[in-house]
Amino acid sequence: MSVRRTVLLTGASGVVGQAVLREARSGAVRIIALCRGTSAAVPEGADAVVHGDISRDRFGLDEESHAALAREVDTVIHSAGLTEWGLPADRYLPVNVEGTRQVADFARRAGATVHFMSTAFVAALAVNAPHRLGAGNVTANYVRSKLRAEQLLRDSGLPHTVFRPTNLVGDSLTGWTSRGQIVQLMSDWICRGRAPFIPVHEGNRIDVVPQDLLAKAVLGAVQLGDDQGEFWVTYGEQAMDMTAALEVCAKHAANLGRALTPPPVVDPDGIDPDRLRELPPLAQSYLTVLRDVSETTRCSGGVLPTSLPELSERHGLAPVADTDAYRRTLEYASTHLG
């Protein structure tokens, strides 16, 4: 019989945190949400709330409050993080690196296991990566900050797991998400017929994963008492290619009454910089992101590592096709996210 664990959830207001709270409503774990701000409201799905700042010593709590919290908690789900791409390296340090250091200090005091949310894109920085990630890549500083946080946890000697999801989409059955992210924004742009072309390296898979799948895997690890392991939450070789992704976009556009001819897929390395500069600013921005994400995927081998078969078996995750999850995400976004 499993013990009902008390979890400190960082990043409770973020996309991953909200998905965890949504999946935790069964009451199998007790969740204390660490939130910034002073609102007295307890986030839906949480049992209690603590107001603090992940980047400050003791989360900004006084000594007595920090100690009292540590006495309650036996597990930390660390999902707080700055996930926006394209920022200077030092912008990621306070939350992604120093925040993880604060989590490690708290977990040591509490005798708690840490379950850390990293990114599958750390594969692009592996010593044996087939290509080197460009210094100007829009994902590079973010990915490096996550890799530093992983190393910090390894060096700490604390019991911990690392979850490495790829880009998240909405709930696998409903498409629900607490807020839109880059996948929804860029897909809407494509579905409106505004993409002149799509830059993707040959052989790359377009790997996205439903956020509820990640939340269920993490909560399953908590309930089973896992205290070690690295889990790639991706579709790997089963992930769709860009042709399949554009077919989903074309069908979604048709359901909205739009006729979409899928844009041509081109080699990112062959894009004429002058042609890119002639495009509207939003198109330049989105195509640059798509090009850099393709480079990151290419540096990861084109196909991301995956632990999905293992996770599905251990936690009884219902199989869902990534194309179905992607389609439901687009449907939800067009109705609820504007």
Structural overview:
The protein is of the alpha/beta class and 338 residues long. Helices cover 42% and strands 13% of the residues. The protein has helices at residues 15-23, 63-72, 89-110, 140-156, 182-191, 211-224, 242-255, 273-277, 281-299, 308-315, 322-336; strands at 6-10, 30-35, 48-51, 75-78, 113-117, 160-165, 167-169, 198-199, 208-210, 230-233, 265-266. The strands form three sheets. Strands 3-2-1-4-5-6-10 form a seven-stranded parallel β-sheet, with helices on both faces. Strands 7-9 form a two-stranded parallel sheet. Strand 5, helix 4 and strand 6 (160-165) form a beta-alpha-beta unit. The longest helix has 22 residues, at 89-110.
Please outline what is shown here.
The chain is built from eleven helices and eleven strands.
List the helices and strands and how they pair.
Layout: E1 6-10, H1 15-23, E2 30-35, E3 48-51, H2 63-72, E4 75-78, H3 89-110, E5 113-117, H4 140-156, E6 160-165, E7 167-169, H5 182-191, E8 198-199, E9 208-210, H6 211-224, E10 230-233, H7 242-255, E11 265-266, H8 273-277, H9 281-299, H10 308-315, H11 322-336
Parallel strand pairs: 1-2, 1-4, 2-3, 4-5, 5-6, 6-10, 7-9, 8-11
